[in-house]
Design a protein that fits this description.
With 225 residues, this protein is α/β, with parallel strands linked by helices. It is built from 8 helices and 8 strands; from the N terminus they run αβαβαββαβαβαβαβα. The structure holds pyridoxal-5'-phosphate (PLP). Residues 30, 32, 53, 74, 196-198, 212-216 line the site of pyridoxal-5'-phosphate.
Length: 225
C-alpha cells in the first residue's frame, strides 16, 4: 500500500467522526500542487471532498479527477479567474471581500445558477491571508446574506500559524460563536470549515465540522513546477 492511501486511512482512523456538537466532521483534501494521480489515489482511498487554491490548476485538472468528489475552492478568488470555476465548484469557501461576492453573484445570475459560498475569516488579522476580521464579520454577513444567486452556507476560517494552543483555542471558540450566531435564524448555515494539518484537533474540539488537510495526507508540498 502506498503512502497516500495509508495516510488517508490513518487519518479517518484518528479523526473523530463527530465534533462535540454532534455534527459530522468532513475531511477535505487540500490538493494544491498535487499531481492528478495523487489526488485520484486519495479519492480511491475514501476522500469525498477536494479543495483547490488556484483557478487555472483547478481547470487543468478538472476533467482528470475520478470518482466524482465534491469540489471546493479554498484559494484567494480573483474576478478575472472566476470564469474557470463557475458551474464546476460545489462550494466556494474563500469569499473574502464584498466585491468578489458581488461579482460571483452577477456571474451566477448570468449563468442561471445559485452558488453556495462560505465567508472567509482571517482570525489572526494576518496581512498575508485574505478574509474578514472577527470584528467586521457580523456586519459583512448582514450585508451579504440576501445577495441574489448566492447561498451562504457558513464560515471558512484560517487560524494563525502559531504553536500557542491557548491562543488557537480562544480564536477557534470565538469563531464557533460567530457561526452559532448566524446559524440561529438561517437553516442554510451548516458548514464551519476550520483546521489544517497543524491545528485540526484543536479546531474540531472547538466545533469545526470540516477540516482541510494537505500535508498530512500528501506529504510536504513542492512548489517548483
Ligand atoms: C493549503 C491549505 C490547507 C491545507 O494546509 P496543510 O497545512 O497542508 O494541511 C488548508 N486550507 C487552505 C486554505 C489551504 O490553502
Amino acid at each position: 500500500m502506498s503512502t497516500i492511501t495509508e495516510n488517508v486511512r490513518a487519518f479517518y482512523e484518528k479523526m473523530p467522526e463527530f465534533n462535540p456538537y454532534g455534527e459530522k466532521v468532513t475531511l477535505l483534501a487540500a490538493v494544491k500542487t498535487q499531481p492528478v494521480e495523487a489526488i485520484n489515489e486519495a479519492i480511491e482511498a475514501g476522500i469525498t471532498d477536494i479543495g483547490d487554491n488556484h483557478a487555472q490548476e483547478f481547470r487543468d485538472k478538472y476533467g482528470l479527477i475520478t470518482g466524482n468528489p465534491k469540489r471546493h475552492f479554498i484559494g484567494h478568488m480573483q474576478t478575472n479567474k472566476v470564469k474557470y470555476l463557475t458551474g464546476k465548484v460545489n462550494l466556494y469557501q474563500s469569499v473574502d471581500s464584498v466585491s468578489i461576492a458581488e461579482y460571483l453573484s452577477q456571474k451566477s445570475a448570468q449563468a442561471g445558477v445559485t452558488s453556495d459560498i462560505l465567508l472567509e475569516i482571517n482570525a489572526g488579522n494576518e496581512d498575508t491571508k485574505g478574509g474578514f476580521s472577527v470584528e467586521e464579520f457580523p456586519r459583512i454577513y448582514e450585508t451579504l446574506r440576501n445577495i441574489p444567486n448566492l447561498r451562504i452556507e457558513g464560515i471558512m476560517a484560517m487560524l494563525p500559524a502559531s504553536q500557542d494552543e491557548t491562543l488557537l483555542r480562544d480564536l477557534a471558540t470565538k469563531i464557533r460563536g460567530l457561526y452559532d450566531g448566524i446559524k440561529k435564524d438561517n437553516a442554510d448555515i451548516t458548514v464551519l470549515s476550520m483546521g489544517m494539518s497543524g491545528d485540526w484537533k484543536i479546531c474540531v474540539d472547538c466545533g469545526s465540522n470540516m477540516i482541510r488537510i494537505g500535508t498530512a495526507l500528501f506529504g510536504k508540498r513542492t512548489y517548483n513546477q
